[in-house]
Design goal:
162 residues; mainly alpha; 8 helices
Amino acid sequence: MKQTCSTDRALTETSSTSGLSLRANFSWTFVGNSIYSACQWGAVVALAKLSSPVIVGQYALGVAIAMPVMSLTSLQLRPVIASDVRETYKLGDYLGFRLFSTALALLIIVAIPFVLHSGPTATLLTALIGLSFAWIASRNRSSFVRRWAFSPWAWASISAAN
């Protein structure tokens, strides 16, 4: 006799694996985001101490251009992948879309300072900031090392080094 399992039954069954509680997950996220913000602030302070106000302004322009574009084009694919329990789409579909949206974001990030006539230095700096955000976003979204997803301060230190 052949046994079958419907998707409705599979979705209603609970798993026996125990994860972190909501309070622990919130705590990790809060602490991680706080340390990430402190590292970003420290990077700006170090840049201000070690360089001229013009460089700090160009860095601020680069972050102001790159951060919203990367945020809007990432489209929060991680929760989408996690919520696709019926596996409607293959992982390659998500990866292809991620690559396309990242390439589009980098194109937009380079085009904005070019259109604003910000100069070659600001355009290059903005492109480098966009590349670092794209690299950090791709690393932060990977699921092969779970603990790194809960430690954005590690990625903050990497971004501060960039």
